[in-house]
Write a structure and sequence with these properties.
- With 120 residues, this protein is mainly alpha-helical.
- The chain has one domain.
- Helices cover 83% and strands 0% of the residues.
- Helix 1 runs antiparallel to helix 3, helix 1 packs parallel to helix 5 and helix 5 runs antiparallel to helix 6.
- The model has no long low-confidence stretch (mean pLDDT 94).
Length: 120
């Protein structure tokens, strides 16, 4: 049951990253001038979806604290790399980003590393 803390850490982390990409993409490109950049970032900070991604980062931190209270960090931390795999897949689904052969190989190596690294 303690694995739920690792799972929640991954879910909250992935949610925050995907939502941030979604909202920043919807806002358009970052302006070139300094005042435009500051205004852009300030608007982003007031965006409810961006705020939710920050809140999810906070929840991920709480979940992570619970996870490392139950497991050695050298067991729990490799699972965090699964967020890379999930974000890659979701980036293709939601943002139509390209998944290349090299990315598939890299993500396969990550999954293999998690499987091997999680052995006690």
């Amino acid at each position: 049951m303690a694995h739920i803390y690792i799972f929640l850490t991954i879910v909250f982390t992935v949610f925050g990253q995907v939502v941030m990409k979604w909202q920043v993409s919807a806002a358009g490109p970052l302006p070139n001038d300094l005042s435009g950049k500051m205004l852009f970032l300030f608007r982003m900070l007031l965006n409810p979806w961006v705020i939710s991604s920050f809140f999810c980062a906070f929840l991920a931190s709480l979940s992570w604290m619970a996870a490392v209270s139950k497991f050695p960090i050298n067991y729990a931390y490799p699972y965090m790399s699964l967020s890379f795999v999930i974000v890659l897949l979701l980036s293709q689904v939601f943002f139509h980003e390209q998944i290349t052969l090299y990315k598939i190989i890299g993500m396969s190596l990550i999954v293999a590393g998690v499987v091997i690294g999680s052995q006690k």
